C-alpha cells in the first residue's frame, strides 16, 4: 500500500518529554528566588547551551512515567508535584521534527539543596538570570512561570514547595516569592485560614521569636484539580 506524503512525514516526527522544575532558594533578607535546574547539552544541535531536563518518549512508556524517569536520570530529583504543562510543536523549533510534551514540577527547598549528580553539566539557575538556552526553552520557562504565578492565586499549588508541617509565615513567603511582592500578613492569614485548605496542628515552631503554630495541608482537598482524570 502506498502512503501519502502526510503519512510518510509522520514517521519522521519524534516525541520528547521535558520538565520545568521549580524550587525556592533563600539568600539574605530579600524574597526567596525561584530557581530551576538546567542541563548543558553535550552534542549538536546547540552543543554547550543549557536546556531543560528531558529525553525521548519510549514507545511502552506513559507520559508521566517518562517525565519522572527523565528527571531522575538527569537531575536525580523526585518532585512533590508534577503536572502536564503544554505541548510545544512548532515546525521550526528544532532542526528535525520534534514535538515536546512539557511537564512542570515543584521541589521543596530541602530537596533542592541536596547535591545534584556530580556532573558539571547540571546546575541550578535563578529564573531571573537565565543563561542562553537551547531551542525554545526560554519561552517554555516563561510560560511555566506565568502558569505558576496565575495558578497560585486559585489553587493549593504553593504547598508543593513546603514541608509537611509549616508556619503561615513560611506559606506567605512562598506566595511572595512566586508573585514577586510582599503581602500583608494579617490579610494573608484571614484568607488562608478561611480557605479550608489548612489544618492547624498542636505543634509549634520555637526560636528567637514567639512560637509559631504549625499547619499541614488538608489532603481531602486535591493539590491540583484534575477532575475525573486518573491519578
Which labels suit this protein?
231 residues, 8-oxo-dGTP diphosphatase, 27% strand, WHD_NrtR, WH-like_DNA-bd_sf, 10 strands, seven-stranded mixed β-sheet, EC 3.6.1.55, three-stranded antiparallel β-sheet, alpha+beta
What is the structure about, briefly put?
The chain is built from six helices and ten strands, in the order H-E-E-E-E-H-E-E-H-E-H-E-H-H-E-E. With 231 residues, the protein is α+β, with helices and mostly antiparallel strands.
Explained architecture:
Its EC number is 3.6.1.55. It comes from Microbacterium paludicola. It is an enzyme of class 3 (hydrolase). The chain has six helices and ten strands, in the order αββββαββαβαβααββ. It is elongated. A hairpin with a 6-residue loop joins strand 9 and strand 10. The longest helix is centred in the middle third of the chain and has 15 residues. The protein is of the alpha+beta class and 231 residues long.
Amino acid at each position: 500500500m502506498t502512503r501519502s506524503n502526510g503519512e510518510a512525514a509522520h514517521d519522521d516526527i519524534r516525541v520528547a518529554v521535558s520538565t520545568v522544575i521549580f524550587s525556592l532558594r533563600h539568600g539574605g533578607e530579600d524574597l526567596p528566588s525561584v530557581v530551576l535546574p538546567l542541563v548543558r547539552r553535550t552534542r549538536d544541535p546547540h552543543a554547550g547551551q543549557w536546556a531543560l531536563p528531558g529525553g525521548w518518549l519510549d514507545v511502552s512508556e506513559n507520559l508521566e512515567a517518562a517525565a519522572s524517569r527523565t528527571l531522575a536520570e538527569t537531575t536525580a530529583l523526585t518532585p512533590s508535584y508534577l503536572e502536564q504543562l503544554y505541548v510545544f510543536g512548532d515546525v521550526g523549533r528544532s532542526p528535525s521534527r520534534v514535538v515536546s510534551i512539557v511537564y512542570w514540577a515543584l521541589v521543596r527547598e530541602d530537596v533542592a539543596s541536596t547535591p545534584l549528580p556530580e556532573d558539571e553539566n547540571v546546575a541550578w539557575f535563578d529564573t531571573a538570570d537565565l543563561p542562553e538556552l537551547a531551542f525554545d526553552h526560554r519561552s517554555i520557562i516563561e510560560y511555566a512561570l506565568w502558569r505558576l504565578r496565575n495558578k497560585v492565586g486559585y489553587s493549593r499549588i504553593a504547598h508543593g514547595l513546603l514541608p509537611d508541617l509549616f508556619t503561615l509565615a513560611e506559606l506567605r513567603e512562598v506566595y511572595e516569592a512566586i508573585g514577586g511582592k510582599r503581602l500583608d500578613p494579617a490579610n494573608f492569614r484571614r484568607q488562608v485560614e478561611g480557605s479550608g485548605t489548612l489544618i492547624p496542628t498542636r505543634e509549634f515552631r520555637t526560636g528567637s521569636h514567639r512560637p509559631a503554630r504549625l499547619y499541614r495541608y488538608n489532603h481531602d482537598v486535591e493539590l491540583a484539580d484534575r477532575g475525573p482524570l486518573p491519578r
